[in-house]
Structures are given as structure tokens and as C-alpha cells.
Amino acid sequence: MGDNTNVARSPLLPLRHEQGDLFVCDIFDAAPKGDTASMEHPIFSLATKPDTKIRTYESPDGKAFVKVTPSVEGLATVMDRDILIYCISQVMAGLKEGREISKTLRIRAYDMQLATNRGTDGRGYEQLRAALERLRGTSISTNITTGGEEQWENFGLIDKSRIVRETREGRMQELEITLSDWVFNAIRGKEVLTLNRLYFQLRKPLERRLYELARKHCGHQDIWKIGLEKLRAKTGSSSTPKEFKRMVVAIIEADREHGHMPDYHFELEGGILTVTPKQCFTEAYAASPAPLLSFHLNPDTYETAREAAPSWDVHYLEREWRDWMQEPPRNPDAAFIGFCRKWFEKRGRA
Fold first, then answer.
1. What whole-number distance in Å separates Cα of residue 154 and Cα of residue 187?
2. N or C, which terminus of the chain has less Cβ within 10 Å?
């Protein structure tokens, strides 16, 4: 990439192409059967070089585990995740338009590269091939307890990919990508979040991971706090605590100067990272149109919903719930309370 002088002074990558908002999936909310372990631990590598280390994460009580095994090509990276984001956004668009959706997508490689702000030269397509191999090769194993019975599952991020058409120069034109059941089930369950388009311009994998965690855990809440050592584990960083702190501080200082981090402010004090939504993000959310499903909830329902999801903003949950639905439920009050209860079971306290 040939950054010019102005771009070199910015922490952001240059924007190659304007595009609309993308509906994207938070991979930790995509775990089948609501497995909390995979929601709490990183799947993608922050490394820019091949990462072939097997990673195992356990829940605090030691009862649940997630094991991530890379192929010989290395673990799928945070940057590889762009491909999943694009695929899932395409399927979500089909759902919203009422089209029949499938695990297998046929897409133009050039469109995907532009949409995710990736290179469209020969090197860009070589990187795309390598990313597809890592996504296919990364294997996730976890034990899941349902109804008091422990089960074990093993799955990948995509099932397969193939080039449908290729130019004489060897560049991809059309691709077929088959998503894994794990990812596809998350789409069908509407377990998606909307990411800021600036996500694809963030240069550093750690910046992307910090934004993902803020988007998932802070959302539209007033504040979210996390200890630095716990944050290091959640990001999947292999850096020493001292080096990790230095990298986080560097990102915070760069954001103070450039304001490049999307949607959230980050502050570090006494080993605690504090995340708060930026004013523009809060204002955009407040001004966004209400979902089309217009029915009213009983005032008492909000109090019950607060009990079902302690510390969560029930009005934020209501907006998420209404956006998730495709048709009005028979009993909106009971349905909303059930949604809040399930939300809390999967995410815990805000």
C-alpha cells in the first residue's frame, strides 16, 4: 500500500471505496447452544506472522473449555475475519429482503476486497487466498453442557471455499464460500451486531479487537470497565503484561490525538480500562429510526425485564429485540422478558 504523507500521519488505513453499513457477527455470540466459553475467549490471532500455537481457554469455574487449533498455515487472524464479516453481512441483507438464504455464497472477490478495504492488486488476492486457507484450517473444540449432560463439539469457521472464475492473469473473479454450521446458525438466530465502517480502516489487530470488545460489552451503555490482565486474556495477546500495557496506552494516546477509534473512548487508570461511547455514537443511536414493529409493552414489563437482565438498559434491550424480530409475537410482554433473560444468560452483567 502506498500511503501518502497525509495518510502516514493518520493511524487509519486509507479508505479505498465508499460503502453502506454492514451487519456483522460478533463471533463470541455465535457459539451454538449459547456456550459462554467461546463468547468470553478470543478465536482469532492478533499476530501478523503465522501463529501455530494451540490455545485452550477455560471458564472461571473450570467446567467449560474452548480449544482453538490452527492448521499448518496458522490460526485465522483478526484481519482474516473481514471475510466472515462480509459473508455474514450479505446473508443478513438477504434475510432482511426476504430472500432464501444458504450457507454457500457466490461472491465477487473484487467486491469483497473493496467492501472490507483490502487491496485489489495481485498481493491483495494472494492475501485473500491465504486468509481463506486459515479460516478453513482453524478448528474449534468445546464441551457444552445442556440438560445436565456434557457434549463435545468440533467445528471450523468455514467449511470450504473455491474459485469459480479466474482471470488470465490469475486473479480471482468469483468465489464460493461455504460457511460452517456454527456461523450460519448465528446468522439464522440473528446473533449479529452492526460495526462501524471505520473498523476496516484500523491498522492494528489490537485496535480491532479492542473495538470488538467495546462493541460487545459496552454497546450503548454508559460505561464498561475491565482489568488490564483480564483484557489481555480476552484479546488473545501473547505479549508480556508490560508490553501489552504499552500497546494499549499507545492506542489511547493516538486516539486522543486523531480520534480514530470508532464509537468509543478508552481510558486506562490504575490497571483498569474504562470504555465509554463517544457522543457521536450515542447521538446517532438516539436519532436512529425505531424498528417497524410498532406495538407497546406494558409498563410493568420493563421492571420485570430489569430483574431478568440486571444492570442492562432495558430500552437498549428493547431496541435490540425489536430489530431482531421479523414479525410481532403473540405475547409481546412475555416475549420481551424471555429475550432479556436469554440475553443475560449469554452475556452476563453489562
1. 19
2. N
pLDDT score of 84 more than 70: yes
Say what the pTM is.
0.74
Report the SS3 class of residue 78: coil
CB environment 194-217: b (16+ within 10 A), e (fewer)? ebbbbbbbbebbbbbbbbbbbbbb
Q: Tell me how crowded residue 187 is: count the other CB atoms within 10 A of its CB.
A: 23
Amino acid at residue number 273? L
Q: Is 41 helix (H, G, I), strand (E, B) or coil?
A: coil
Domains of the chain: which residue ranges? 5-201, 205-284, 289-347
Q: What is the pLDDT of residues 252-309, one digit of tens each?
A: 999 999 999 999 999 999 999 999 998 876 665 555 554 545 567 887 888 899 899 9
What CATH number was assigned to the domain covering residues 205-284? 1.10.10
Residues 6+ apart with CB under 8 A from 194: 21, 22, 23, 24
DSSP string, 188-224: HTT--EEEPGGGGGB-SHHHHHHHHHIIIIITTSS-E
Distances (CA, A) of 272 to 72, 131, 239, 259: 37, 34, 18, 21
